[in-house]
Amino acid sequence: MSKEQENKAIVGRWFTEFWGNPWNPKIVDELAAPDILLQYSLHAPRRGREDVKKFMTDFRQAFPDLEFGGAADLIAEGDYVVGQWKGGGTHTGPAFSDFLIGSLPAASGRKMQFTGTTVLRVENGKVKEEIGLDDGVTALQQLGILKAA
């Protein structure tokens, strides 16, 4: 198996078990580098396994049905894997203030569905970086945090 195929397999598992529903918190210790960087436009960057686990635990408490999945085949070159995705969830949990702007009161019932593209760097079989560009404007509008002009 080529390095690119191995990296795509790692990222495929990461997407399924970290971003899928149900999620597997143990996947962070198994597949993430100790100093992983997780960065998306809606949230402050996260660094390290514990920070990443806390982020996802809080996100999933607020959005219990949160689920993201692939929207196209993964593309790999060297240490990098690129994936397109779509997903979202319904805010039925506790108040949520992790967005860079705005927050939601407890159990708002608001739904978000949006897309994005993510570049992951795999180093020595571990996800070292996950940096994504998402359609955060759409998500924030759907959640009622950002109003259309």
Mean pLDDT: 97
Number of distinct helices: 4
Judged by helices, strands and strand pairing, the structural class is: alpha+beta
| Sheet of most strands | 7 strands, mixed
Q: Taking Cα atoms only, what radius of gyration do you get, to the nearest Å?
A: 15 Å
Shape verdict: globular
- Distance, first to last CA: 51 Å
CATH architecture: Roll
Unreliably modeled segments: none
Total domain modules: 1
Helix-strand topology string: HHEEHEEEEEH
Helix proportion of residues, in percent? 25-40%
Determine and state the CATH class.
Alpha Beta
And the CATH topology? Nuclear Transport Factor 2, Chain: A
* Percentage beta strand: 25-35%
> How many runs of DSSP E, i.e. beta strands?
7
Give an account of the 3D structure:
By secondary structure, the chain is of the alpha+beta class. The protein has a single domain, classed as Nuclear Transport Factor 2, Chain: A (Roll), CATH 3.10.450.50. It contains 4 helices and 7 strands, in the order H-H-E-E-H-E-E-E-E-E-H. Strands 1, 2, 3, 4, 5, 6 and 7 form a 7-stranded mixed beta sheet that branches. It is globular and about 45 Å long. The model has no long low-confidence stretch (mean pLDDT 97).
